[in-house]
Protein 1
Amino acid sequence: MNEPLLDQTEVAKKLGISPRTLERMRLMGTGPAFIKIGRLVRYRACDLERFIAAATVTSTSERPGAR
């Protein structure tokens, strides 16, 4: 468990979205897995990579995660 945890701002920047959009995704359950430590929300890099991999498609007619 030596992996550093990322905060909302860092993850939003990596995904190219606003922190507010990431908050909405978290609320709707459509974003990357996260960790709640008290009031803090943190993300593991491996969970972020898994989220990005699941959203990868090869054509516009393909749905993310449909492979």
Protein 2
Amino acid sequence: MARSAPSTAQSASGGRRYRQTIVKVDLWTALKLSLCFYISAMFVLVVALISLWLFAEAAGIISNVEKFIGDLFSDKSFTFLSIKVLQAVVLIGLLFVALQVAITMVAVSFYNIFAGLFGGLEVTIKEDDPPVR
């Protein structure tokens, strides 16, 4: 929610400027927006990691790493299970989404507390004149 400051000014270019103060951010709105953002980011990262995995597998990098780890631990039958790796990546991604959403909710709550104490964040909005045709 924003409340308008009583002053509006005319800028040199002819547009009007409004000073707005953000005094409260709705927690439910911030939760929905942060969930959408972080889930979308996780989806992009999972798709990128799958693409990198497939590229590394096609280039033979995965088999070389499996052979190296097998030699390191004297286990000649060591292999990565692709589905288990994918499940682990998605699980870790979901944990990070939950953590980031929680951090965002704490940050929004702190903002609301500090805005109540100190007055919020002032934003100047410039309204340009419509182009003349």
Protein 3
Amino acid sequence: MEISIIFKLAAIGIIVTVVCQVLKKSDRDDIATVVSLVGLVLVLTVMVTMVGDLFETVKAIFDLY
């Protein structure tokens, strides 16, 4: 796993947090919720691809299939 992926995930989290805080202060709680859900979907998408790569690596190491 590359360290740059961790930094990307952390950056997404920081940006989503800042945007949500700004939106909540301006009484836009509904949009803040949507922004947090979009951030969650982005992070989960990255994580699913990483888990897929992990399974491919394990299959290659142990010569499965």
